[in-house]
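ok so i was messing around last nite and threw this chain in just to see what happens. nothing serious, just curious
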Amino acid sequence: MTLSVLAADEKFFGNPVFQNQLLPATLETIYMTIATSLIVAIFGLPLGVFLHNLGPRGLYPNRGVYRVLSLLVDLGRSVPFIVLLIALIPFTRIIVGTALGWGAAVVPLSVGAIPFFARLVENSLREVSAGKVEAVKMMGASNGHITRHVLVREGMPGIVGGFTVTVVTLISYSAMAGVIGGGGLGTLAFNYGYQRYQADTMLACVVLLVIIVALVQYTGDKIAHAIDHR
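result:
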């Protein structure tokens, strides 16, 4: 259906869903994304650093532990999100007391995104020059100092870029969570745009999601550029 056809519909943009539910659904998507992003940053960043330091180029290389941890991270990344969403319903009920609403959706979103972001952090730290690490090590710096002031600091532009990619992915996942009652624009698009054939509601949800993604990507790019002094 084209925009001209939609515009010809007298109900287009006169839909009461626009007045009563579009703003709350948009806010739910934003709340869901912010809450999940904070959790992912808190757990995913140290996990990625830990992975790197246990790896072959890390400060505490341990082949066995690295392989086990790496396998667990890959398992977490390989499960399709819709399957993870359904499989974690009992766990979600234990954590937040319900499997419905944006608060409940934060649980599977976090579980799915933490290993994803951790792998991006590990890849960013691999890009840090081994020469810089060796130079600081020869000056007598501790491994903790090297991790905080060399690895994380030098890898921060890549980490910010990876975090931006993760948040954008979370926004698309949040829409998917809406299909099974996760709230937000995904639920609105499914309940009214798909099940009730309201093309204007579907179009509005898609446009708003695109705008949110564009704003996140723009902000992430600006921050990464500002802190990149290489």
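not much to say yet. The mean pLDDT is 88.
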